[in-house]
Specification:
This protein has about 325 residues and is of the alpha/beta class. Helices cover about 35% and strands about 25% of the residues. The chain has twelve helices and 13 strands. The model has no long low-confidence stretch (mean pLDDT about 90). The chain has helices spanning about 5, 45-55, 90-95, 110-115, 180-190, 205-220, 230-235, 240-265, 280-285, 290-295, 300-305, 315-329; strands spanning about 10-15, 20-25, 35-40, 65-70, 80, 90, 100-105, 125, 140-145, 145-155, 160-165, 270-275, 310. The relative contact order is 0.17. The two termini are about 15 Å apart.
Length: about 325
């Protein structure tokens, strides 16, 4: 190891609308990162201020710093404008201001996808059958604020095997209802939306809209403004039949969508569910029609039958993925 390598630091970040988590990527650590710190975004005027504070606190000034930042917004242009924060910055200026050796910004779902090959059995929960086939594509989707989607494909360059992530906006493909209940939901959404995508059901506000559609169909004097958290809580506790039904529809729709992802890329490396919603009710998901709907794909059901599905339970998939992306480079 030469002097440059000794003085090189790999800085990673997972930047959300509420919190920013910073750490140092280190493949010698069990978690692949260390020195994690969490800051509230609202307490800072800019991303540069947070990064500068971390660099100063960890006494990293003067070292060679390579940074990989996972961020929940498009990263294709030099000018970055965060969706849920009043932060706007130039990638070029940020690199210069902090005197970084290298700066890479990746989408948050690229980071989550990159984390998947590193997950242990303790960081994920299998739902249903199927078996991972090594060196085959992997798909991930995540109901949360929206519906994130990414695909991971193994590639070999100069004899070196690596993972390459293909991002996109798969959550915005057209919703295809199955059965009378989902047709009922679609009919309701068609009265309030110009177009209905899977994100209109598979997200926090999507769960709320499923519930609203059921209330509308029943013509009941129920509260239409229940939050996703209230719906999931009452659904799990079975204190509200319509909340329970909304959660079931959510799970079976997710199964159909995840199965579509498996077919698109022949994702025999597995289809993974991320996001902040599903890990709260994994046992409910297992008992629902999620896996049945995942597998039911007509003549091509043999593909989904042998494709495993998992829920990611790792608490910091964004940091883990950013570390994987940076260390792979």
């Amino acid at each position: 190891m030469n002097a440059l390598e000794i003085n090189t630091i790999n800085l990673i970040a997972d930047i959300g609308g509420t919190n920013i988590r910073l750490a140092l990527a280190d493949k010698s650590c069990k978690a692949n990162y260390k020195e994690i710190e969490t800051y509230r975004c609202a307490e800072f005027n800019s991303l540069a201020d947070v990064l500068a504070l971390y660099i100063n606190n960890k006494q990293l000034s003067g070292l060679v710093i390579n940074a990989c930042l996972a961020i929940a917004c498009p990263v294709d242009d030099d000018l970055i404008s965060m969706t849920n924060l009043p932060w706007q910055f130039s990638q070029t200026d940020l690199k210069s201001q902090l005197k970084l050796n290298n700066l890479t910004l990746i989408n948050d779902y690229t980071a989550i996808a990159m984390a998947i090959p590193l997950l242990s059995d303790k960081q994920k929960v299998k739902v249903g059958g199927g078996k991972v086939v090594a060196n085959k594509p992997i798909a991930v989707c995540g109901p949360g604020t929206g519906l994130g989607v990414a695909n991971l494909v193994p590639v070999s360059t100069s004899g070196v095997s690596q993972w390459h992530c293909f991002g996109g906006e798969g959550g915005h493909v057209d919703f295809a209802p199955i059965g009378e209940q989902e047709i009922t939901v679609l009919r309701y959404l068609n009265t309030i939306k110009k177009r209905v995508s899977y994100e209109q059901l598979l997200s926090g506000y999507g769960l709320e809209q499923i519930y609203q559609a059921l209330v509308n169909e029943e013509n009941k004097e129920l509260k239409l403004t229940l939050s996703a958290e209230e719906i999931s809580t009452q659904g799990l506790e079975k204190t509200c039949p319509l909340c329970h039904q909304a959660l079931l529809i959510f799970c079976q729709t997710l199964g159909s969508f995840a199965g579509n992802l498996a077919l698109i890329m022949n994702s025999q490396g597995g289809v993974y569910i991320a996001g902040g919603i599903v890990p709260r009710f994994i046992n409910f998901l297992k008992a629902s029609q999620f896996r049945e709907r995942f597998e039911t794909k007509g003549r091509l059901s043999h593909i989904t039958l042998q494709t495993p599905t998992y829920v990611i339970t790792e608490q910091q998939p964004g940091l883990l993925g950013a570390a994987a992306y940076l260390l792979q480079q």
